[in-house]
């Protein structure tokens, strides 16, 4: 039961359900009995079954197309947010304005190929002078919207982003090359390639078994990252002000898999915040009382990506890092975290700082600069597959359950959970893990109703509840709130 391979959840027999529950309880009991209260024995994480249509869609990701995208971005020479964006520079193909126009045209090209399925939009604003912005500067985020096809679910949104601005050694330099192939041509390429592949899948009824995804997907490329996360900040604030039901943000920044000798191309790091940046004092108190420090919505999203990584052969495995970001560095996911959204950051395993934020040059036999030749395009393609499979899974899944409660009225060793029905759900799954386990260890299906009682003590484990549809697509799990 800890290993969930059957996607036909709704068809699970009642007997199967009961025996699953029994085995789960016995396993927990045995674990506790055999090694005592300090036991750290952990079960392998459950694995959700792959959707063959999604598996097929991610095969369309092309390393060669990604290479072309990154080389094109590099051709604009310097994509600093404060670089040129006048008509003449755009025509000459130099500066951030030219990059912006090209990204827009590229989204429009994909849209044409899917019968106009993408709405291509821009979010433009003027950033006032600040530490890294010498004068009022127009900043433009470019995005494409793949509108959900289910009227009830289309207001739910999942989003992938990368930043298309770049820099060299000097934050204020707008003339010398700032190729930004890896930082963040690679992340921009993830957004674009996800848009290309998932819009194609959208078009093909045979790929998704039905036209389109029920949930809306947004493919975003932001600017201003290097000057202070300006673009993502503006976009996240807009999402918050307009009360978007934004369920997940995947930020890809430096996913080029730099070809250094110590790179590990088999993994990509996924950073997620623990205590939510947007949590109020009261929420922090509740988290402290629950032992919920590792169950922010961003961390549940990270675990979801881990599950996708087990279910699909993306070519790269997510390595979950339970931390907001790397030391001395920040990223666009934080802008979304600050507005209370679940957002994570993908970054290659080992970064080469000679190939980031550096003037292109050679010194003492060392090559500096963020050039395409250091990028491993096959690696970026793997990262795109992981992102696309995550987006497609979330965009196919029922809404996460709401008002998930854990009854704590009486002192008892059983655990009773309740929740409200989710749109599109055929069944629910209760997942749980030891308090010291990083990922879910057990899963039990609830085939009818929105209430479950388990022979597992809430004092010893952490629970989550997720919704499942008839095809086996799972929602993000939701941690219950205690109710007295
Ligand atoms: Zn970056």
Q: What does this protein structure show overall?
A:
This protein has 13 helices and 17 strands. The protein is of the alpha/beta class and 484 residues long. A hairpin with a 7-residue loop joins β11 and β12 (415-420). α3 (63-75) crosses α6, α3 packs across α13 and α11 (297-311) crosses α13. Bound molecules: zinc ion. Zinc ion (ZN) is lined by residues 163, 183-184, 225, 253-254.
Task: Describe this protein with a few key phrases.
484 residues, alpha/beta, 22% strand
Please give the structural blueprint.
Layout: H1 14-35, H2 52-58, H3 63-75, H4 87-92, H5 96-113, E1 118-127, E2 137-146, E3 156-163, H6 181-203, H7 205-208, E4 216-222, H8 225-228, H9 230-241, E5 245-252, E6 267-271, H10 281-290, H11 297-311, E7 317-321, H12 333-338, E8 343-348, E9 361-363, E10 366-368, H13 377-396, E11 402-407, E12 415-420, E13 427-434, E14 442-446, E15 451-454, E16 461-468, E17 481-483
Parallel strand pairs: 3-4, 3-5, 5-8, 6-7, 11-17
Antiparallel strand pairs: 1-2, 2-4, 6-8, 9-10, 11-12, 12-15, 13-14, 13-16
Helix pairs in contact: 2-13, 3-6, 3-13, 5-6, 6-13, 11-13
The structure holds zinc ion.
Residues 163, 183-184, 225, 253-254 line the site of zinc ion.
């Amino acid at each position: 039961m800890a290993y969930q391979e059957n996607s036909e959840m709704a068809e699970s027999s009642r007997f199967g359900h009961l025996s699953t529950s029994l085995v789960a309880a016995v396993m927990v009991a045995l674990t506790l009995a055999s090694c005592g209260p300090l036991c750290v024995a952990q079960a392998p994480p459950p694995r959700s079954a792959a959707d063959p249509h999604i598996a097929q869609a991610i095969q369309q990701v092309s390393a060669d197309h990604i290479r072309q995208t990154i080389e094109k971005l590099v051709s604009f020479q310097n994509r600093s947010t404060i670089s040129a964006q006048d008509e003449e520079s755009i025509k000459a193909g130099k500066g951030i304005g030219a990059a912006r126009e090209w990204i827009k045209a590229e989204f429009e090209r994909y849209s044409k190929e899917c019968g106009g399925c993408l709405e291509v939009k821009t979010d433009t604003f003027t950033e006032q002078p600040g530490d890294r912005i010498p004068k009022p500067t127009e900043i433009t985020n470019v995005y494409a919207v793949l509108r959900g096809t289910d009227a009830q679910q289309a207001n739910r949104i999942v989003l992938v982003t990368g930043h298309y601005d770049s820099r060299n050694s000097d934050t204020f330099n707008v003339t010398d090359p700032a190729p930004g192939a890896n930082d963040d041509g690679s992340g921009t390429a993830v957004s674009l390639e996800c848009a290309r592949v998932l819009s194609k899948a959208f078009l093909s009824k045979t790929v998704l078994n039905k036209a389109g995804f029920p949930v809306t997907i947004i493919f975003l490329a932001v600017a201003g990252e290097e000057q202070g996360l300006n673009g993502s900040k503006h976009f996240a604030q807009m999402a918050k002000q307009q009360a978007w039901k934004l369920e997940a943000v995947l930020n890809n920044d430096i996913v080029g898999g730099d070809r250094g000798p110590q790179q590990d191309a088999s993994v990509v790091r996924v950073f997620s915040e623990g205590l939510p940046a947007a949590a109020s004092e009261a929420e922090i108190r509740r988290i402290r009382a629950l032992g919920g420090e590792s169950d922010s919505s961003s961390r549940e999203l990270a675990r979801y990506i881990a599950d996708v990584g087990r279910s699909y052969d993306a070519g790269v495995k997510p390595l979950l890092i339970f931390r907001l970001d790397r030391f001395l560095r920040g990223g666009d996911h934080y802008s979304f975290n600050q507005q209370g959204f679940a957002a994570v950051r993908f970054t290659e395993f080992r970064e080469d700082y000679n190939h980031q934020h550096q003037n292109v040059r050679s010194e003492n036999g060392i090559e500096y600069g963020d050039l395409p030749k250091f990028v491993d395009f096959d690696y970026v393609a793997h990262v795109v597959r992981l992102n696309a499979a995550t987006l497609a899974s979330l965009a196919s899944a029922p809404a996460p359950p709401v008002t998930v409660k854990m009854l704590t009225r009486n002192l008892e060793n059983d655990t009773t959970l309740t929740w409200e029905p989710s749109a599109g759900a055929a069944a629910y799954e209760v997942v749980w893990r030891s308090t010291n386990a990083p990922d879910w260890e057990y899963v039990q299906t609830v085939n009818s109703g929105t209430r479950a009682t388990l022979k597992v003590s809430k004092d010893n484990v952490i629970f989550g509840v997720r919704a499942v549809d008839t095809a086996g697509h799972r929602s993000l799990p939701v941690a219950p709130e205690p109710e007295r």
